[in-house]
Amino acid sequence: MPEHSGTSGRTPETNVIDYRAAEQLLAAKDPRGAVKLLDPVIAAHPENTAARLLRARAFFAAAQLRPAELEFTIVLEREPDNAYAHFALARTYQRQNRPDQAKRHFRLAAALDPNPEYLEAARFDG
Predict the structure, then answer these.
(1) Residues sharing a CB contact under 8 Å with residue 67, sequence separation 6 or more, in sequence order
(2) Are 96 and 103 contacting, i.e. CB atoms less than 8 angstroms apart?
(3) What residues in the chain have per-residue pLDDT under 50?
(4) CA pair distance 87, 53, nearest whole angstrom
(5) How many CA atoms lie within 13 A of 21 on its CB side?
(6) For residue 6, what pLDDT is reported?
(7) Cα separations (Å) of 82 from 69, 76, 120?
(8) pLDDT for the residue 125
(9) CA angle 73, 79, 80 (to 5 degrees)
């Protein structure tokens, strides 16, 4: 089979395997390894929001806050009602000492999903 330019011979199966392996690496506290696996997945499928969200989580776990912010923002452009992405972006802003932006996204997360962690972060519960 001829190789398509830009995919480096990647198959859909390769992308799924790398995505699952990246989940495992992130769970095993190897966020940088997860990012390395996800980079080619996202290069092949830039529209894949799940892969972008996983890469954002990996960047956050690796304390790479600017790349995490960018990925969470891209996810929210595509899924503005993603409460988890709002919460995670708020935590990213919080770690960057940007409290006003953090508060806005904590509140959006809590408004979209009354998860107790989101409500506490938004200070809606008291």
Answers:
(1) 56, 59
(2) no
(3) 1-6, 125-126
(4) 12
(5) 15
(6) 45
(7) 15, 7, 18
(8) 45
(9) 75
